[in-house]
Amino acid sequence: MNWISNFVRPKIRALVQKTEVPDNLWQKCDACGAMIFHRELEASHRVCPHCSHHMRIGALERLKLLFDDGEFNRIELPEVPADPLKFRDRRRYSERLKEAQSKTGEKDAIVVAHGTLGGKPLVAAVFNFAFMGGSMGVAVGEALIAAARLAVLQESALLVVPSSGGARMQEGILSLMQMPRSVIAVELVKEAGLPYIVLLTDPTTGGVSASFAMLGDIAIAEPGAVIGFAGARVIEETIRETLPEGFQRSEYLLEHGMIDMVVQRRELPGLLGRILNLLGDKSPAAEVVPLPAADAPATDAPAADVPAPDVPTGQAPTSKQERAEQSPEKAAE
Ligand SMILES: [Zn+2]
Questions:
Q1: What is the C-alpha radius of gyration for the chain, rounded to an integer number of angstroms?
Q2: In angstroms, what is the span from residue 21 Cα to ligand 1's centroid?
Q3: At residue 158, what are phi and psi to the nearest 5 degrees?
Q4: How many domains is the chain built from?
Q5: Residues 108, 157 within the same domain
Q6: Are residues 39 and 73 in the same domain?
Q7: C-alpha 208 to ligand 1 mean position (Å)
Q8: What contacts 217, CB < 8 A, 6 or more positions away?
């Protein structure tokens, strides 16, 4: 009886009870090898708590992290012909597409959504690396154009978060054509005088890095992300030289002036909110003060102009108050 109550019964109970715990309770960090409990990993947005290694995250998780209160509206993406070249390698492209669609629950490798970030309107296009390596085919190109048009329509900033191996080879020349098309999409936003921000994540390579991904008004990268055109091994074999340590990593690119900053994942919402507020605020920083009369001697100007310095200082607290009003909301997130 002991055997039944101690072994069989718990087994049956475990089978009957539906546990909400996923199969992979622990995940090994690729960088330091530490085993991390899945809840801890979720809470840290998939950043290793031991070595701060930034693991890849899904598009929806990324959108939830970025937008205010994790709320956003996805937009329907344009329909595109599937498998226009009837491409086949070891398997049919249409089969690979279907498999990726059922695995990720997405139509293609990109998600476009709009909402607010730091109280400012934002359109975000986020790549999903889990979908065929985030590769850029016609669907991704169309989605980027749709995102740019939406940003122009809503007069909001456009944020693109690439995580991609490059162009999708199964769509041949059509995928390469998405490079100039995505650049034109970015131009739409820039011509409208709206901010275009790129958040480079691991990895941003190939045709993606050679088009819209490197054109951000502000280029931000996550720590340790691989960013480059050709892979390091290919370059090494071609030039027959050993590449420096950290080659093609975010920090290396920052050091060499290719990007503006490297930012920890948890700090991204706050930082992007600040940037959007700085770039989106078109009102003058302080009240416009009339210049002193032309006949007044120039040397007296600062002394005679006593109220002038007061105006900006009087103005400053209001903006500080505004900031103070906004920051608790951010902290609450
Ligand atoms: Zn680690």
A1: 25
A2: 22
A3: -115, 125
A4: 2
A5: yes
A6: no
A7: 28
A8: 190, 195, 196, 197, 279
